[in-house]
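Dear colleagues,

As part of the handover before I leave the project, I'm documenting each prediction I ran so the next person doesn't have to rerun anything. This entry is a single chain, and its sequence is reproduced below.
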Amino acid sequence: MTEVIEMLMIILIVTLCFLMIPFNTKPSEVLEARRKFDIFVRLYEKPYRYDVREYDYRFQIFRTSLAKIRQLNGLARAVNDSAIYGVTQYADLSDREFVGLHLADLLREAEPARSYQKYVIESRSAEMKNDIIFSRARRELKLPTNLPLTVDWRSKGVIGPVKNQGSCGACWAISVVDTIAALAAIKRTDRKLTELCHERVVHCAANGNNGCDGGDTCRLLEWLTEESFRIGAAETCPERNMVAVPPDNCTATPPPVLAGAANTSIVKRFTCQGFENEEHLMLRHLATRGPIVAAVNAISWKYYLGGVIQYHCDSDHELLNHAVAIVGYELNATVPHYIVKNSWGVRFGDRGYVKIAIGKNLCGIANRVSFIELA
């Protein structure tokens, strides 16, 4: 009897001990990160899936990315329209790798930032001078009262599909060529868009541009203007590969871009200057003339999923590292913003697009802007 009582006491004590142990039913942080990483690797078809050493190295970077994403979202959600950050195709890259692979294609001038003033249009048109001449005194953004609240050139059918520059550092060419194609379509009475041959420009542009190793939007526009270079339709590209374009393609005259309008891809004039305190002029040009080209600092876009960027995007001129096309704006939104077309494919951001708040020169979007006029 005594032995039975002792056995029951032992069972009771053991049971009480287990009841007092706090069980954690949630998976550990490492296991949860591993699960997300496994999904990430399959989703983006990463080549190191079966390479144990590389897989583990990329997993550690991925965990660091998850921590940064939590920090960004913890500070950035001022309103429902604010930018949201998360796992993108770049979440397994270190910051150094991301910059080297995707943001090293915009060449920088050794000269001071204002050296780009030499590219300002010398126009006889008083209307165009009003668009580009301004006071640099600091002031609050003046939202024009006589412009539409929403401008989105995509809805007019003049904006081509989002490109993916891949391993070719060609943002400087893609942003300019896409904008030229849009402006050519706007000039037509039927607004018909003809895609142009980016590859030809990447390969042929001189004036300090280096093909897939990088270039500069201002130098490209200067070269296009001085050479009266007609880009040619995308269908005239001998090979749809920005890395491999036959050398003789630069001297060959491409077929007319549009029937009866052979000069619609020739740049006549352009600007390359700052509108840091005069973003209302950018809005006016977007509404009345069409898309524009801008250099930006895109380092914080590494984890961008959508929404309007309002923070975490430095505007220093020295940090400009990428080129994009601005294809519209939305003033009627909770956070007024630009509609920015990127060149990292449709899986990036908002189907390839970025929204950037107006009026704060976020990401340096107003530091170096190009208005383009075609012949």
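DSSP finds nine helices and eleven strands in the chain. Residues 36 and 291 are 38 Å apart (CA to CA).

All the best with the project,
I.
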